[in-house]
Amino acid sequence: MLVGVCNPLLDISASVDEALLKKYALKPNDAILADESHRPLYEELVANHTVEYIAGGSGQNTLRIAQWILPERNITSFLGCVGNDIFSKTLEEKAREAGVHVVYEYSEKDATGTCAVLITDGGKQRSLCANLAAANHFSTAHIEKPQHKDLIHSADFYYITGFFLTVNVDVILTIAKHACEKNKLFMMNLNAPFLVQFFKEKMMSVFGYIDILFGNDTEFETFALEHKLAEKDNMDMKRVALDITQMPKFNTNRQRIVIVTQGEKPVLVAHDGIVTEFPVIEVPKEKLVDTNGAGDAFVGGFIAQLLQGKPFESCIKCGIWAATHIIQMYGCTIPENVKYEEW
After folding, report:
1. What are phi and psi of 330, to 5 degrees?
2. What's its EC (predicted)?
3. Given 11, 211, 290, 296, which residue is catalytic?
4. Are the beta carbons of 163 and 172 closer than 8 angstroms?
5. Which of 3, 131, 159, 202 would you call most buried, defined as having the most Cβ atoms within 10 angstroms of its Cβ?
6. What is the pTM of this model?
7. Which of the following CATH numbers is that of domain 2-7+57-111+135-326: 3.40.50.300, 3.40.1190.20, 3.40.50.2000, 3.40.30.10?
8. pLDDT at 251 over 90
9. Does residue 152 contact residue 176 with C-beta atoms inside 8 Å?
10. Are 55 and 126 in contact (CB under 8 A)?
């Protein structure tokens, strides 16, 4: 029912001190692509810290969470590029265990991508530094293969992360245009402030196709500043969300929906000229482990209910529930023996 596209990455997660962030010029709660200056980080992380290897990649996380909640397996399919190595085998194994139908493209030249997840402030902050490697080489030819094209065309819902803008915008446009022509639902996520700033042209080339846009308040604030929707000292997030719903859109059969997560603050949903607030579930500080994956989990919970035709309020509540459970685990790890019950 749903096809997702993103960068499959193996997360190398560890609790660190702020000195390590400063050493590599990283911010406490941000997401960036690694450059040459970050190459020693991965070895240093493994050598000097207790690390966990966790199946990651924003889009793949979201689909694993959705399948955790959905009543049947293989309702979602995931496309991305990996290396032909042990890391990709781990990623595929974890995704298939969760019930995701994996359709990887394999690179013989590059290793599977990794992401350093640096956890600080008792789990409240996480800094992501991604080395895309093979993920950076997803080809348009992969979605043109007859079996893959059939898979894409048979779906009714699509979710592509903003991170994939750095890889192959033509793939995004191909899927987005199909969704628009067939009146299917196309969803994207802002994912990181640097994407809004430095991949602005590519983002706006697909923006008109987006039916549902997800992101957190920091990402939407950056979007507002870049598009002159608000000023830094006068940032009204509700107004920003409403303004984004009114930006040009190709499929006029449905209005754009904008969903803003704000950490401990209520989730904002802008649609049809109205902003609705949904309070989140408070997690005691002693149970908070790692906020990495919270946004991915929220979208996964939302999608799980959306695919079942549940009311919009149920989709939001399930997203909040999923994020609440994931931040009590290391990485986007699915807790055992926990099942969703609508609240």
Report:
1. -80, 125
2. 2.7.1.20
3. 296
4. no
5. 159
6. 0.93
7. 3.40.1190.20
8. yes
9. no
10. no
